[in-house]
Amino acid sequence: MAYRYNRLDKDNAVVLLVDHQAGLLSLVRDFTPDEFKNNVLALADIAKFFNLPTILTTSFENGPNGPIVPELKALFPDAPYIPRPGQINAWDNADFVDAVKATGRKQLIIAGVVTDVCVAFPTLSALEEGFDVFVVTDASGTFNPVVRDAALDRMSQAGAQLMNWFSVGCELHRDWRNDIEGFGGILGGHLPAYANLIQSYSQKS
Amino acid sequence: MAYRYNRLDKDNAVVLLVDHQAGLLSLVRDFTPDEFKNNVLALADIAKFFNLPTILTTSFENGPNGPIVPELKALFPDAPYIPRPGQINAWDNADFVDAVKATGRKQLIIAGVVTDVCVAFPTLSALEEGFDVFVVTDASGTFNPVVRDAALDRMSQAGAQLMNWFSVGCELHRDWRNDIEGFGGILGGHLPAYANLIQSYSQKS
Amino acid sequence: MAYRYNRLDKDNAVVLLVDHQAGLLSLVRDFTPDEFKNNVLALADIAKFFNLPTILTTSFENGPNGPIVPELKALFPDAPYIPRPGQINAWDNADFVDAVKATGRKQLIIAGVVTDVCVAFPTLSALEEGFDVFVVTDASGTFNPVVRDAALDRMSQAGAQLMNWFSVGCELHRDWRNDIEGFGGILGGHLPAYANLIQSYSQKS
Amino acid sequence: MAYRYNRLDKDNAVVLLVDHQAGLLSLVRDFTPDEFKNNVLALADIAKFFNLPTILTTSFENGPNGPIVPELKALFPDAPYIPRPGQINAWDNADFVDAVKATGRKQLIIAGVVTDVCVAFPTLSALEEGFDVFVVTDASGTFNPVVRDAALDRMSQAGAQLMNWFSVGCELHRDWRNDIEGFGGILGGHLPAYANLIQSYSQKS
Amino acid sequence: MAYRYNRLDKDNAVVLLVDHQAGLLSLVRDFTPDEFKNNVLALADIAKFFNLPTILTTSFENGPNGPIVPELKALFPDAPYIPRPGQINAWDNADFVDAVKATGRKQLIIAGVVTDVCVAFPTLSALEEGFDVFVVTDASGTFNPVVRDAALDRMSQAGAQLMNWFSVGCELHRDWRNDIEGFGGILGGHLPAYANLIQSYSQKS
Amino acid sequence: MAYRYNRLDKDNAVVLLVDHQAGLLSLVRDFTPDEFKNNVLALADIAKFFNLPTILTTSFENGPNGPIVPELKALFPDAPYIPRPGQINAWDNADFVDAVKATGRKQLIIAGVVTDVCVAFPTLSALEEGFDVFVVTDASGTFNPVVRDAALDRMSQAGAQLMNWFSVGCELHRDWRNDIEGFGGILGGHLPAYANLIQSYSQKS
Amino acid sequence: MAYRYNRLDKDNAVVLLVDHQAGLLSLVRDFTPDEFKNNVLALADIAKFFNLPTILTTSFENGPNGPIVPELKALFPDAPYIPRPGQINAWDNADFVDAVKATGRKQLIIAGVVTDVCVAFPTLSALEEGFDVFVVTDASGTFNPVVRDAALDRMSQAGAQLMNWFSVGCELHRDWRNDIEGFGGILGGHLPAYANLIQSYSQKS
Amino acid sequence: MAYRYNRLDKDNAVVLLVDHQAGLLSLVRDFTPDEFKNNVLALADIAKFFNLPTILTTSFENGPNGPIVPELKALFPDAPYIPRPGQINAWDNADFVDAVKATGRKQLIIAGVVTDVCVAFPTLSALEEGFDVFVVTDASGTFNPVVRDAALDRMSQAGAQLMNWFSVGCELHRDWRNDIEGFGGILGGHLPAYANLIQSYSQKS
C-alpha cells in the first residue's frame, strides 16, 4: 500500500493548546523550565505567524492547576477559550470539539501538559474521528522521559505524527521566500544559536 | 483501516499485579527505589479507588524471590491471590487465567517485575487470546533501560498500549466531577509536586 | 597539622530546616519529587528519633513561596518556628540565631531549599561564628546539578562537612544496640530496598 | 488480523553467535566491558543449558578483528564454527546458512558485534526467508546508543522480536520446576543481585 | 505478507547530502562537534569509495546559514550542486528532484542538517513517490535527542529504514574481498578504535 | 585559622562580562542555548538592578568570534567597553584592569565564554592581585562538562568562590524588603517556575 | 610547605573490606551490579597477589544485612574476620582496631558498603589517629552519585587519597618486571578489554 | 598567604605524553574515541606550535599495550622517546626523569593513558620534586568518570593544576597578535565549531 505524505498545510491546520497552566507546569520534568517555556511560546508564535486558528482550553483553572500562562492568553485574545468544567479529555467537552470542527480544518497540531493525558487523550479521540494529528513533542511536557516515551509510542502507533515546533514551522512555511524577515524573526527569537548566526552575518553585511 | 480508540473503561478493566516481591525488587534498576515504590502503590490505589477487580500473583515466594510487598497484600485482602508453583508466565497458570476470565472483563491493566518477563509474557499470551492489554510502564521494573526498551517494543508491536499510572487513572476517571476529592487525594498522595499545588492553593482559599 | 574527626554527637547537634515550602519546592530540579520528599522526611524522622533540637524557618510563606510542607510542621509542633519577614539569609534574622544559640549546641545539621542560597548563606555565616556545620546534601535541593555543585564546593571550601541523611543518622546512632528496632524502622520507612531486606528476612525467621 | 504469540520453544530454537571477536569487542561502547562480557556469556550458558544447537561464526579472525573470545570457543567445542572468508553478512555465507538449515529449526536467537551490521544483516536476510528472529539486544553491542537504536528499529520494523538474555532464558524454561537448581545456577552466576538473594535465603534455611 | 529485505545495492543507490552548512551546523546539539564532523565525512568517503552518484544541496548559503562545509565541496567537485533559492524541503526544488531522477536509481541514502526538517521532509516526499529511503541517523543532526527521536519515528513509520554510516558502508560493500585495503582504509580513517586494531595487528605481522 | 565569610556587598562589587560574543557562543556546549542565554541575561539584569558598575570586554569582535550579544550592549550603554586588540587574558589589557580599579571595588563578579580561558585567566590574575573573585558558573560556558569541572577546580583551589546568578542576586539583595517588587520581577523574568508561582498566587489574591 | 608523595608500599599496606554483605549490596545503586562485583573481587585479588594483610568485618550478618559475599570469605580463609555486634563505625570496635594495629602497617586501603558510612566513618577515625588512608572508590558503593560525591569530598578534605582498584594495584606493583604473568593475569581477569588485548596479542605471537 | 598565579610560560614548559598506545587506548571509556583522538592530537599540535620540548614514553610497547599512536611518533621524530622496560610510573625511569631535567624547565604539561596511573603517578612524583604540574584532563583517558574524578581529585589536592588542551594553548599564546594565522589554524583544525565560524566569516570578507 503506497505511502501518502500527509503534510502540514497552513490552510488546513488548527492549533490546540491544552492545559498549559501555571500549576500544572510545575509537574513538567522532562524539559528544563527555560527550554519548555521557550518551546511553548515558539509554537504559539508560529500559530500566530501563519494565522492558524488556535484553540485554548484549560482544566479547573480556579483550583490548584492554576491559570493559563499569561503569554498564551495575551497572544490569542480572540481565540476560542474553553475552560473545561471537569472533563479530563478535552475531546469529551462538546464546546472544544465544536470549536475544532467549526474551523473546518482536518489537521490538528496539538501540544499540552501533561503529554500522557492532556495531549494523548484528545489525540486518540481525534484520530478515531478521522482527523490528522501532529503532536508537538517539545511543546508538550510530563513527569519524566519514561512516561513521555510511552505516551508518544501510544500516539504514534495510533497514527499520529510526532513533530517539534521547528519542523511544524518549516513544514507550514514551505519556502523562505514567502516571508524571509518574518520567519527569520521567529527563529531568531526562539533559537539563540540562530540569533547568533543572524547577528554575526549582519555585522559583516 | 480506521483507527479505533480502545479506551480504558472502569467497568471493563481488571488490574494484574505480577511478582512485586521483596526479593525480585532488588533486581529493578531502571527506576530508583523511591520512585518505583511510589509508582506501584499509586497504581494500587487507583485500582482500589475505581473498585477494579485486581489479581495478585507471585513466583516462588518462599524462596529467594521473597514475599509479596506487604502494602499490596494489605490493600487487596480479598483479591484473588495466586502463588504460582513454577510457571514463569503467569498466563501458563490455569488459576490465574481463570481468575482473569472470571471477571468477565476484556481490558487488562498489567504491571510487574521484571518487565521483560513477568509483564511481557502474560501480555503476549493475553493479546493472543484477544484481550486488550494496557502496560503500566512506570509500575513495571527491570534490569536497565536497554532491557526495558526492548521489552516495551516487543509488547507495543504485538498490540499492547503503553501507559503509566497517572494516565491510567485519568483515563478511568474521565471527569473530575465524578469525585474531585477522591481523585485529588490520590494525586496528592503520590505526586509530591501536585500535593504542593494543593497546599499552596488551600492556603489562599 | 593533625586532623581531628569532628563527629556528629547527638548531645551537641541541632537540626536546621530552612525554607522547605510548597512553592519553593517546585524550583527543585536536581532530585525527582519522590526522592526529595523522601529525603527531607527521612532527615526529619532522624531529628525526631534522636530528640535533636530542631528549628524551622520560612521565607515569606504568605506569598508565592507558599507554606511550609505540612509534614514538617506536624512533626515538630513545639519547635521554634521563625517565619522571616524578609531576610534571605536566615542567619541575618536575630530570632533564628537566638534560637540556635539557645540550644547551646555547636554542631549544626542543615538542609533547605534552595541549596545555593537558603543553605549556603546561613552555613557560611555560622562557620564564621565558629559553629561546625554539616550540610545534608540530599535533603537540600536547587535548580540543577551545576548550581548544586558550585554551592557545595563553596561550603566545603569554607569548612562545612558534606553529608546525607543516611550518614547523619548512622553517625548519630553509633551503635545499633542503642535501639535496633527504632533505627531499623527509620531505615525501613525511607529506604524501600532496606524494607525489602527486612521483609525477606522476617519471612524466614 | 489476530496476533499470534510467537514464543521461543527449546525444541525449535537455534542460537547464532556472530563475530564476538577480541578485536571487534573494542568497538563496543553502548555497554561497559564488564556488563557486555557478562551478557554474552549468560546467553552462551543459556544455549548450553537448553542444549540448543549453536552456531559460531567470525569475520577475518586472523586480521585485526582478532580471534573469537576463548570462553565461547571453549563452551561449544563441537558446534559448527564458520570463519567467513569475507562475507560481511553471515547469511551470504552458504556454510553458515546450511548450518542453520541443517538444524531444522525455525526460531533464530541471534547476538553479535556490531549490532547494526553483524546482527542486523543476517536478521533481515533470515526474516526474508521466513525464519522467526529473536534479537538478544544486550548480548549485541555497537558504537553508541544512537546507532543501536536505529539498528533495533530497523530489525523490529522488519518483524524481529527484541529480547534480552534473561527473557530468552525464561521464555525457553517456561516452568521453574523443569530444573530449579540448574536454572537458578545460571541466574546466580550472571546476576549478582540474584546471587545475593540466593545467598541471603540460604543463610536462613 | 512476506517481508522483503530491501538491501542497499551500490548500483542502485544515490547519496543526498542536505544542508551541511557552516552556520546550520552550530544548531546541531545531539552529537558533539567532533563526532558529527567525523560521521559526515565518513559517509562522504563511503559515497566516494563506491562511486555512488552524490547530490549536494544547500539552503540560502549566502545568508546566516553559511556555506557548505568545504570538505564536502572538495570531495565532490563534479557532483550536482543545488543551492535552493528558498524551498525548505529539497524535494520541492525541481532541480534537486531532477538530479535524483537523472541517476535512475531508486535507493536514496540521505543525511542532513537538521534531521527533523532537511532530512525528514525530502524523505517523506521521496517515499510518497516510491523511492526507498535509507536515513543515515548519525550523519544527520538536530537540536536535541527529543527532536531527533520524534523525527526518526516519523520517518520510520512512513517506511524509511534507519541506518548509520558504518552499516551503510558494510551493506554496500558486502564482501571484504571486494577491496580489503580500500574499505579498511575508510574504517581506519574514521574509527579510531579500528585504527588502533590495525596498528597493533601490523606491528606483529 | 578562623574562616571569614567574604560576602557579596552591593557597594563593593563590580561585574565583569567577558567575551559573550555571537560567534564564541556557538562553542558553548555545557548548557543548552536557551538556558545559557537566560542565565547570562539574568546576571545582567541583576547587575543593572543593583546598579553595580559593569565592565564589558570582547576579543576580536570583528573576526569570527563575532560581535557582543546585542542585549548586553543595550543594557549597559554607558559601561566601560573594552574591545581587546589581542590579549586573551583580559587582565593583560591595561584598559580593562584600569576600568576595574577605577571602580575602587574589591569584589569581582565574573562570567564569560569560555570558562576555562576567558573566565579562568582573569580570575587567577585578579586573585593574585588580592581581589575577591566570585565566579558565576551558570553564566559561563565552555566545550563540555569535563573542561568546565577542571576550570572550576583550578579557580576554586586558587581561592575564587563558585556561585550562580541566583545566589549572586540573593547575596546582594540580603532582604526582600529592600525592594520586593523589583527583585521579584527579576526572578519572575528569568525563572519560569517562579513566574508560575507568582501567577498562581496572584490569581488567588 | 613541600608536598610529599605518600605512595602505596606493599610492605606497609593493609586492606580493609567493610560490610560487603549480600543484603547491603542491594542498596548499592551508583554502580551496576556487574561492575561492582568485578571491582570488589579485583581489589580482593590484588590484596591476595601482594600478600597484603587483609581484614574483613561485617555488621549484623545474621540479620537483614545478610552474610558476607562468599567469594571474599573464600579468598581470605585465615584473615581476621570481625563480625561487629553493633558498632556502625568499624573503628569503634576494639577487635577491628587491634587487628589493624597488629599488622604494624600505616597505609590503610579501604573499601566497603555503603561509602558514606561504612567507608567514611573508619576512614575519618583512622586519619585522626595518624594512619594514611587510601579509599578505593570503585570498590565502594552507595545509594546514588550525590551521596557518593558528598562522602568522597568529606574524606578527601580530611586527607584521604581517592583511588580505584586499578591504580592501587599499579602503585603497589611499581614495575611489571616484578611479575609480568601474575599481574597481567589479574588485569586480564578483571578488565575484559585488557583480556582482549592479551588474546589478540597472543594469537599473533 | 597570598596566592600566586603559576601561569604557563612557553619558555619554561615541557610536554610529557605518557603511554598513548594503540592497545591501551581501547581501555579509555570516559571519552568517545573521536573526541579523545582529537584532544590528544590538539595537544600535540600545540606542543609543536610553541616549540615546546616534548617527551614521549611508552610501557611495554611490544606487548599487548601496543605501539605508540603513529601520529604522535610522526609529529615528534626527534623528541626523546623512552620505551620503559617495566616501570609503571614513568618517573621511576631514570632516562625519563633525566630527559625532563635536561630541558631545564619547571612547568610540566602532562597527559596520558590511563589518567589514574600513567598520569597520576608521575604527576605526584614530580610535584614532590618541586615541579609545577599542569594536567591536561581532556587528553588523558581512563576507564570511567568515577575513576577519572578520583584521580583528578588526588592530583589537585597534591597541588597540580587541572586544565584542558584549549586553555593550555591559550595560556601559552597570551596574545593573538603573536601569530593570528598560526594559532587560528590550530583551533580551526581541532574545533569543528570554530572552523565553521572561520568559514562563515571568510565567506563574507
Give the SSE order of chain A as H and E letters: EHEHEHEHEHEHHH
Helix/strand-derived category of chain A reads alpha/beta
Task: Give the termini separation of chain A.
Answer: 51 Å
Instruction: Name the assembly state.
Output: homooctamer
* Strand fraction of chain A: 5-15%
The CATH architecture category of the largest domain in chain A equals: 3-Layer(aba) Sandwich
Helix content of chain A: 40-55%
CATH fold topology of the largest domain in chain A: Rossmann fold
Low-confidence blocks of residues of chain A: none
Query: What's the number of helices of chain A?
Result: 8
**How many structural domains can be distinguished in the coordinates of chain A?**
2
Query: How large is the radius of gyration of chain A?
Result: 17 Å
Strand order of the largest sheet of chain A: 3-2-1-4-5-6
- Overall geometry of chain A: globular
Mean pLDDT of chain A: 96
Tell me the CATH superfamily of the largest domain in chain A: Isochorismatase-like
Question: Quick one: biggest sheet of chain A?
Answer: 6 strands, parallel
CATH class descriptor of the largest domain in chain A = Alpha Beta
Count all strands of chain A and give the number.
6
Chains forming the largest contact: C-G, 36 and 37 residues
GO molecular function (chains A, B, C, D, E, F, G, H): hydrolase activity
Protein name (chains A, B, C, D, E, F, G, H): Hydrolase
Organism (chains A, B, C, D, E, F, G, H): Pseudomonas solani
Keywords (chains A, B, C, D, E, F, G, H): Hydrolase
